Amino acid sequence: MSIPEASPATPRPNSPVGEGEAFGSSRALRHYAAVMRRRWRWIAAGLVLGMVGGLLSSFITTSDVSKQTYFKATTTIVSTGAVTGPKLQQVAFLLQSAEVQQTISNDQGIPPETLRGLISAQAQQDVSAIDVTAIGLDPEATVNLADASARVLMDAAKTDSEHQYETNRDSILAKIDDLAARRADLESRIAKSPSQSSILKAELDSTINQSRVAYEQLSAIAAPGASDASFTVFQSASAVQINGRAFRVRYDANLNSRGALSGGGNGNRVTFSETDLGVVSGSSRAARLAIGGFVGLILGLGTALVIEVWDDRIRRRDILEEVTGIPVVAEIPAFSRAERQDFSIVAVDDPRSRTAEHFRSIRTSLLFFIEAQARPADGSSRTPVVLVTSPNPSEGKTTSTSNMAAVFAAAGSRTLVIDCDYRKPSISRYLAPRLDLEYPERPQTTRVENLWFMAAPTTSASAAKVIAILGKTIETWRDQFDIVFLDTPPMLATNDATDLLEWADAAVLVVRSGQTRRLAAERASSVLARFGAPIVGTIFNGCAERDMESYYGYGYYGSKYYGSDANFGTGGSRAGGANAARSTSVERQRPASESSPDSSGSLGLDL
Are residues 193 and 235 in the same domain? Predict the structure, then answer.
C-alpha cells in the first residue's frame, strides 16, 4: 500500500523569514535570534575588526598629525580711556572688519581669506580688556601675527575714536554758529519792533539756553580723557603648542565669527584640553574605537544575514516541509559527543530523556500510518516493513533506525532490523548482536530485549542479486516478527533504497539539520514521490535547540528523569496518552512453536 503520489514543493530562496511571516512577528524574531547565535563568530569578527580598524586609524592619524605642530598666541590689550561695556565689544568687532584685516594682511603677507580663520578678538568686560589671539603652524610667526593684530586693532580703535570726536565736535560747533546767528536776528527784531518785544524776548531766551547747552556739550567732549579711546598692551603674546583638534575648532570658529563675542568671550573656547597633544584632529581615540566597533558590528550582522541567505543547508522544520512537501514527524536534538562515540541508543540508554520521547512520538506516527495506510486491502494480517533512508551519508539514518527499533522493542513488539547497507554496514555497532555460531544465518539477538538483527549479505554479487537476496530475506522473516526495519543506503548515493521500496509498507526519510542541502532533500523527496513510496514523513535529525519549534515544551524535561513509565507516548502527538495502549497494536498471536525466530531450522536462508 502507498500513499497518493505528491509532487514536492518547488524550492524557494532560503529567505531568513518564511513566507507569510511578518518581519516583527515573534517567530521571525526567534529565527533572527537563532541566526545571530549560529553566526555569532561573524558578528564578533566584524566587531573586533571594526574596533581594531578604529584603533589603528587613531594611531595612523596621530602619527600624521605629530609631524605637524600647531600653536596659539594671545596678546592682551587694556583700555586707558573711557572705552567700556558695549564700546569694548565694538572695538573687538573691528578686528573682523575688511579694512583692519586688509591692513594686517598687508603687514604680515597673509591672504585675507586665510587670515580670517587665524585671528580673533574677545572682549573681557570685567577688566576692560581685549584678548587678540592668533593661531598658526610656526611659533614665531604666530606671535608676530598676534602682536601685529593687536597693534592694528589699537590703531583702528584710536582712529575710529578720533574720527568720532571730530564728527561730534563739528556738529556741535555748527549748531553753536546757527544759534548765534539766530540770536543776533532776534535782538535786531526786538530793537526795530518794541511792541512785539515780549514775544521776541521769550524766543531769544530759548535760543540763549540752547547755546549754553551746546557749549556744555563742546566742553564735555573736549575734557581730558573724554575722547581718549587709546589702548595699551597689557601682556605680549607667547607661543603655546596646541593639538590639531583645537586648531581646527578655532579655525572654523574664526571663519564663522561675525565679530566680538558677547559676555566673557567663551564662544569659541573648546571643552577639551587644547594642550593635550594626544588629542588629534577629528575624533578622539575612544570615539574612533566606538565608531569602528559600531561599523564593524553592522558589517558583521550584514555578513551573517548574507551568509544565512545564501547557505542552502536546511535548519528549520518549516523550510524542510516546504522543500520536500513531506511532513516532519519529529525533530531530534543533536546527540552529544559521548553518545556518538559510544554508538549509544538513547531510547535504551536514557529512556526518559526528551530525545527518547521524540522517538516514541515517531513510533506513534508509524502505528497510525500503518493502521490507516499500510494494511492490505483484503484485510489480511501482514507484518509491516519500514524502510529508513536518507538523501546522503552521515545524516543519522542508522542512528534513527536503531532508536526507532529499540522503542518498538521496549513496547513489547518483536522487532527485526535488517542491515541493507551491504556496502558500508554500521548499524551492528549500535545493536551489538550476539552471534549464534550454530545458526549464523538466522536473526541474532541484540543487547536490546525483543530486538533481533540480520546482518547485510557478505557477497561480491551484483547489486541486483544482492537486492533479490535482501528481498527474499524480508519475505522469509517478516511474519516471524511484529515489525521489520530496513536500514538502507542513502538514496542519492545508490539505487538500493529505491529497489527495496517493493517490500516496504512505510518509508521514513531522515534529514540532518545544518548538513542536508535543499537540492538533496528535494531530489530525495522527488524520487520517493515518483515511485509512489508510502511516505510516513521525515525525521529532522541533529537539530539545534535554537532552531527547533517552541511547542515541544522543553521546560517539562527539567531533569534527566521524569515520571515512572518509560513507555508512554508524547503528549504532543496525535496519540497522546493513548500511545501506551496502542503499543501492541501490531503484535500477533502466534503458535508456541513460532515464539522465537530460531525455533525452526526450516526458516534459515543460505546467503
Answer: yes
Contact 537, 553 (CB under 8 A): no
Q: Which domain holds residue 47?
A: 39-61+283-310
Whether 418 and 398 map to the same domain: the answer is yes
pLDDT computed for residue 553 by the predictor = 46
Instruction: Say what the pLDDT of residue 74 is.
Output: 92
User: Cell match 593684530: residue?
Assistant: 149
Residues 6+ apart with CB under 8 A from 280: 58, 61, 62, 65, 243, 244, 245
Can you give the pLDDT at residue 278? Answer: 60
Q: Are 513 and 542 in contact (CB under 8 A)?
A: yes
pLDDT of residue 180: 83
Give the phi and the psi of residue 502 in degrees, each rounded to 5: -60, -30
Please state the φ and ψ torsions of residue 143, each to the nearest 5 degrees. Answer: -65, -45
Contact 300, 54 (CB under 8 A): no
Q: Mean pLDDT of residues grouped by 10 in the chain (607 residues)?
A: 40 46 60 74 85 77 62 89 70 86 89 89 86 92 91 79 64 80 81 77 82 76 55 86 86 73 43 66 70 85 79 84 92 84 87 89 91 64 90 91 94 94 89 82 91 88 89 92 94 90 93 90 92 92 72 44 34 33 35 40 31
Report yes or no: 17 and 28 within 8 Å, Cβ to Cβ.
Answer: yes
Between CA 217 and CA 182 the distance in angstroms is 19
Q: How far apart are the first and last CA of the chain?
A: 28
Burial 531-549 (b: 16+ CB within 10 A, else e): eebbbbbbbbbbbeeebbe
% helix / strand / coil in the chain, to the nearest 5? 50, 15, 35
Number of structural domains, the chain?
3
Total Cβ atoms within 10 A of residue 529: 19
Long-range residue pairs from 108-116, CB within 8 A, at least 24 positions apart, any chain: 108/144, 108/145, 108/148, 110/145, 116/254, 116/255
| Predicted structure pTM score | 0.51
Residue 372: helix, strand or coil by DSSP? helix
CA distance 454 to 347: 20
Structure confidence at residue 586 (pLDDT): 35
Give the gyration radius of the chain's Cα atoms.
50
pLDDT value at residue 607:
28
How far, in Å, CA of 75 to CA of 147, rounded?
A: 6
Residue where a domain stops, chosen among 549, 569, 586: 549
Q: Is 478 helix (H, G, I), strand (E, B) or coil?
A: helix
Those residues whose C-beta lies under 8 Å from the C-beta of residue 583, and which sit 6 or more positions away, are 363, 367, 411, 412, 413, 567
Single-letter amino acid, residue 454: M
> Are residues 121 and 155 located together in one domain of the fold?
yes
Q: Give the separation between CA 594 and CA 603, rounded to whole angstroms.
A: 11
Distance CA 421, CA 570 (A): 31
SS3 285: helix
